[in-house]
Design goal:
The protein is mainly alpha-helical and 301 residues long. Helix content is 53%, strand content 3%. Helix 10 (236-250) packs across helix 12 (264-274) and helix 11 crosses helix 12. The N and C termini lie far apart (65 Å).
Amino acid sequence: MAAIADPEHVKTIRLFATWRVLPRLRARAERSHITPSVRRFAAEQIKYATAFLQWLGERNSTLASCGRIDVDAWYAEKTEHGRTCLRAFLNWSMQSRHCRRSLSIPAMKVSRRAALSEDERLDALGRLLTDTEIPTCLRVAGVIVLLYAQPVSRIVRLTVDDVIRDGDTVLLRLGEPASPVPAPVAALLLEHIANRDNMNTATNPAFRWLFPGRRAGQPSRPDHLSALLNEAGIPAAAARGAAIRQQLLELPAPVVADALGYHDKTTTRLRNETGGTWSRYAPGDHARSPAGWVPRGADDS
């Protein structure tokens, strides 16, 4: 705020941050962990709103007098990211009567990164299981993405307690029931747990993160882990898209949603896009625990 010269701009941005940006961040925090990308996008919304007000002033215009011509001119000068970041401010301005309620905002372009093909996914899995030149932590994180379609933001929140051992059976708790881990992956996972990185600080040995971060007591940063996976040839978003689609070709959407921690509406939509053949699957409690698995706390008798 101190860097904004116009007092009216300061007032507008403060209201926008207080009544639009922060409430949405708090609501997100109540549902799940705030990732660096979520926090960064919130900051970018305020940054572009401030830049837009300054830009209007340079055109001898104001937010109150702003029209479609102004918005079109701004959009023509900015990248798609800049346009996306400004949308929340423009919508809030119309709703709060800081500008014309009839202001028209160009439709947002939605682009999705293409998922890996199934051959590419299997090749990447094979490389992670056999290439010992890749750090073990990246091999494990990449396998979790490629097998279980987990976002990196959720992977870094896993703890060693989410890895369940029952005799020779190893499971990974991502939803309910826990997902079985194939033998080669299980061996890699257990090796990683025994030799986790960043465990040499004074407080980290007491923490249970599956991927400990450099900061004591904190897990690895998802943006940092995602960047390392990309450098290792595993594009996280594309790999996750390939994994979830393969899961939905093999299993009903409700089962995938429960086991992998997805919302059932998400898996249903992806199933329809993928062309899955489970449209007549009856929803309900069809969960079956893998052979040999005993839930924690169950009576041994």
